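Narrative summary of target 7.
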Amino acid sequence: AWLEPLGLGAPRLHETCLALYETQPNKLLLNYGTRIDPSVLTVAEAESQCLDGFIVKIFTGTWDAPVQQSNDVFCATRYTYESWAAPLAAWQSLTFSNVRNNFFVIQTATAPQADWYSDADMAILIANMRDLARVAKEAGFVGLCFDLEAYSPSHPFQYDTQAQYPTKTLAEYKAKVRYWAHVMMDEMISVFPDFK
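Modeled conformation, tokenized:
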């Protein structure tokens, strides 16, 4: 199991963080882009970087050959809560004293793409999201981060790649996505009521 708080490593990161704190005292400084792997970055080094938290992606398998990733769940393939046991335990084994505002990232550009007009696909997607919200809560994350960037051509929010395109209008798709978003959020809140 590996953890990837999605870049630390800029030579002057600490100085940059301090400068940001001086100019933006009420803002949290989160890191998006670093592996927490003892060969790359230790907890002590992470704590010394003047960060308030990490945005973290978890996955099973190895770094070079990930099997199941938290950014793969926004799709029509089912990933159960139990399948996240190893990365959940890995994160829980880390002891931070200063870095407490950690967020769990879910990237939406994955394949196979779920069909917004398929109740079966949406049931799988919603179950995946509910289980990841539960994992995030139990691991001590303060919230969830949705990364909506289009990393692949198969993106759930790109109208012309949808399963029902062009038989459904853009307005119809917007309404359907909003409907399922409400259902999804209700399910996620049911297991992690106070997530940010």
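The radius of gyration is 18 Å.
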